[in-house]
Amino acid sequence: MRFDRRQFLKAGAAGATMAGLAGCAGMPGSSKARVVVVGGGYGGATAAKYIRMLDPSIEVILVEPNEAFVSCPISNFVLGGFKTMAEITTPYSGLERSHGVKIVRDTATAIDVEKKQVRLSRGDPISYDRVIVAPGIDFMLEALPGMGSAEAQSNVLHAWKAGPQTAALRRQLEAMPDGGTYALSMPEAPYRCPPGPYERACLVAAYFKAAKPKSKVLLLDANADVTSKGPLFKKAWAELYKDIIEYRPNSKAVDVDWRNNTVKLEFSDVKAAVLNVLPPMKAGAIAAPFITANKRWCEVDWLTYESKAAKGVHVIGDSLQIAPLMPKSATMANNQGKVCAAAVVALLNGEAPNPSPTLINTCYSAVSNKLAIHVASVHKYDEKDRTMKTVPGAGGVSPAMNEPEMGYTMNWAANIWADTLT
Ligand SMILES: Cc1cc2nc3c(=O)[nH]c(=O)nc-3n(C[C@H](O)[C@H](O)[C@H](O)COP(=O)(O)OP(=O)(O)OC[C@H]3O[C@@H](n4cnc5c(N)ncnc54)[C@H](O)[C@@H]3O)c2cc1C
Questions:
Q1: What is d(CA 120, CA 15) in angstroms, rounded to the nearest whole number?
Q2: CB-based burial of residue 55 (10 Å sphere; 0-12 exposed, 13-18 middle, 19+ buried)?
Q3: Cβ–Cβ under 8 Å, residues 265 and 220
Q4: Looking at ligand 1, which residue's alpha carbon is closest to its atom 21?
Q5: What is the DSSP letter of 109?
Q6: How far apart are CA 356 and CA 236, in angstroms?
Q7: 198 lines ligand 1 (CB under 6 A)
Q8: Which residues, including other chains, have CB under 8 Å from residue 240's CB and lie 6 or more apart?
Q9: Cα dist. 303→33, 38, 340, 385 in Å?
């Protein structure tokens, strides 16, 4: 029993189109097996595409509420006014057209591991043989009680999921009078994209330097020191933004008074013209039943990405409990998507997964609209400890900020967007 792919594409049609899908997986006459992927970000979209590439007889359904993919990487350039939202947006249609991934525009509300079904907000449940859960992160708003209301959340933005908040924060920065302070509050590690807040401080400062030279960037870091590429970022702040960026370590936010644009730290309050708060983070809500570490993250078998909490459920991307020195990054989610896809295809064909997977990470960061830096690492499966470990001597950091790195940054983005979505 097959269903019409055109049925899945239009917003609002999910309820009608999904009727009859419960019970399809593995039935005679259908595909060999069905994989449902929840979340079409760097991890999920990559996994969906690569399963189809590796074994076209497996049916892949990708559940994603957003109409198009909006990239977090390069979104800090939008805040600085150096890129547009259109330049960081890619349609999902390539996954369907080139790879036969069926896209259901809906939100998964639960994963029923007994019935092997993904329940949806609007449509009927979808049965699966295996499900890949890749919802990225959600925010621990309970750590900042003042952020609990919708009003607070629409005034004090995170812009840590690229999309409408990215455009809204850019508007706040544009509206800020020259001489104002933009305060960026960041949480203790682990959080999505270790160098991301430091890059954001640089690109907003680059905007101020050109357009609002009396304005300040105040970076309130809950950590004791810069968590990624520290010497390189500090050099950039000293050489490019001496009178603009102020870095304050050990500045953990404990609450937000959104009416007064004030973030409350443990021992002081900071009021800003534009307040940008990144709350502490945890696995995306749909992955909650598979959280096994610190009430925040999902542990998996690194050979297959199968959850330690449920069979037939695989988790990839930022929702994972990271292995030592593994960043929560787009490159990493994209790599994990491929390893997971290969493992799922092997398991569905009765074969053993690769016993020795390797992941490679490169994180580029802009320090201005012209100069960039990077850090790279290689992570290999360790059979004895059953975890991923960095390969000594592989990878490293840029010797200095420079212009060629900006070219590599943009090439990296173009490549990963093509690899994930086309
Ligand atoms: C400002 C910023 C800059 C960054 N820069 C870089 C960089 O330069 N390099 C780099 O490698 N990384 C960078 N990152 C990190 C990178 O964006 C993340 O690590 C990456 O997006 C993680 O991929 P993911 O698939 O886990 O999550 P995401 O890419 O966030 O995808 C999750 C998807 O799941 C969907 N979803 C969530 N819940 C549900 C549900 N219930 N049902 C259906 N769908 C659902 C969401 O809509 C979303 O599309 C940056 C992040 C930020 C915020």
A1: 9
A2: buried
A3: yes
A4: 330
A5: E
A6: 39
A7: no
A8: 202, 205, 206, 209, 367, 368, 371
A9: 21, 20, 8, 12
- Nearest-CA residue for ligand 1 atom 23 is 42
Q: How many CB atoms lie within 10 A of CB 216?
A: 19
pTM of the model: 0.93
C-beta separation of 22 from 40 below 8 A = no
**In sequence order, what are the residues at sequence separation of 6 or more whose Cβ sits closer than 8 angstroms to the Cβ of residue 371?**
236, 240, 401, 402, 403, 405, 406
Distance, in Å, from the CA atom of 69 to the CA atom of 41, rounded to the nearest integer, reads: 7
- Rounded to the nearest angstrom, the distance between the alpha carbon of 136 and the centre of ligand 1 is 5
CB environment 242-254: b (16+ within 10 A), e (fewer): eebbebeeebbbe
Contact 256, 277 (CB under 8 A): yes
For residue 407, the tally of other CB atoms under 10 A from its CB is 11
Encoding tokens for residue 115?
A: 């019935």
In DSSP terms, which residues pair with 247 in a beta bridge?
Answer: 219
What does the pLDDT look like over 64-111, one tens digit per residue?
999 999 999 999 999 999 999 999 999 999 999 999 999 999 999 999
Query: Is the CB–ligand 1 distance for residue 196 below 6 Å?
Result: yes
Which residue of 8, 18, 38, 42 sits with most ligand 1 atoms within 8 Å of its CB, as the best mutation to test the pocket?
42
Q: Which two tokens stand for residue 384?
A: 């004895």
- Whole-angstrom Cα distance, residue 122 to residue 233? 45
Angstrom distance (rounded) from CA 17 to CA 245: 52
Sheet with 313-315, strands from edge to edge, namely 102-104, 58-63, 33-38, 130-133, 313-315
366 lines ligand 1 (CB under 6 A): no
The answer, yes or no, to whether any atom of ligand 1 lies below 6 A from the CB of 73, is yes
The answer to whether 353 and 304 are in contact (CB under 8 A) is yes
Residue nearest to atom 4 of ligand 1 (CA): 73
**Ligand 1, atom 2: closest residue by C-alpha:** 72
- From the list 4, 12, 3, 5, the residue with the least C-alpha distance to 101 is 5
Q: What residue has token string 């990054």? A: 329
Atom of ligand 1 nearest to the CA of 328: 19
- Please tell me the predicted confidence (pLDDT) of residue 26: 47
Q: List pLDDT tens digits, range 322-361.
A: 999 999 999 999 999 999 999 999 999 999 999 999 999 9
Q: Is 80 in the pocket of ligand 1 (CB under 6 A)?
A: no
Q: Residue 33 in contact with residue 132, Cβ under 8 Å?
A: no
Question: What does R_g of the chain's alpha carbons equal in angstroms?
Answer: 22
